[in-house]
Design a protein that fits this description.
The chain has about 290 residues and is an alpha/beta fold. About 35% of the residues lie in helices and about 30% in strands. Helix 3 runs antiparallel to helix 4 and helix 4 packs parallel to helix 5. The radius of gyration is 22 Å and the shape is elongated. The chain binds adenosine-5'-triphosphate. Keywords: ATP-binding, Nucleotide-binding.
Length: about 290
Amino acid sequence: MIEVKNVTKSIHKNDVLNHVQFNVRPGTITGVVGRNGAGKTTLLRIISGIIKPDSGEVFIANENIFSQPRVKRDVVFVPDSTDALKAYSIKEIVKFYKEVYPNFDETYYFDLLEKFQFKKSGKIKQLSKGQKALFSLILAFSTNAKYILLDEPTDGLDVIIKREILKFIAEEVANKEVSIMISSHRLDELEKMADHIVVLKEGTVNSELEMETLKEDYRKIQVAYQEQFPEDVLQNLEVLSQNGRVGVVLLEADDAEGEAILKNYEPILYEELPLSLEDIFVTKLGGELYVS
Ligand SMILES: Nc1ncnc2c1ncn2[C@@H]1O[C@H](COP(=O)(O)OP(=O)(O)OP(=O)(O)O)[C@@H](O)[C@H]1O
């Protein structure tokens, strides 16, 4: 379990994180979602023990990452760039990683390189952007660390490599008892993968969402009316979209009053649609996270 307790951090007098608090359960994927500058990278760097918070604490499996640094071998931070690795070759990096992560599995590392058709020699900087992203994950999962923190793992990658990377992450989580944190502003990707979402907004936790129950808490309804779309619905309900006489409305599951408003105007169509995470974000956060 990762426990983030009341973490606050300023950088150059700028309040980056403000009393941030949440837990990551073992064996789960937690998505950290927020706009550019919300503090996602800073948060992941603090959790992995790279930078210290001004106040607050981070516990990894009940050990404080700053006062018991040996716990760091169980945490890997994968930045969104491989710049730090560019001087190394694919072979040399193994030695470096083995020093930091004593459980690094060299056989697994080379097997994965083969599986993804990497050459086993050459400099890391020669890899393409997509290969670098995949390579960083191969390295991270070869450490056998129990906690892997991924900063925007698919940012700027094409659809094919993105799919390959997300599939790889999902397989690793299914096969190993690892806990993953993924920062992203791609809600649609997190929706498919995450068990738990932490929404960061201007350095604070705006909300936490459990994917399992989330979709049971809301209903997305498409309605169409014979004549014009009722002003009452537009004014008093969460209308996700409206085009002429047809609209899509988000209701909380137990919102009988909202349902009564929709039905009061005798819709000619009233149909429940599949709900996406983005629908809920748009409503809960006023559309501000609609960034993908
Ligand atoms: N080393 C630094 N020097 C100055 N400001 C910093 C530094 N690191 C972070 N910040 C500031 O802290 C805030 C949060 O940055 P952070 O990178 O954690 O956000 P983020 O949510 O990861 O953003 P992005 O999605 O753009 O990567 C930003 O306003 C950023 O300018």
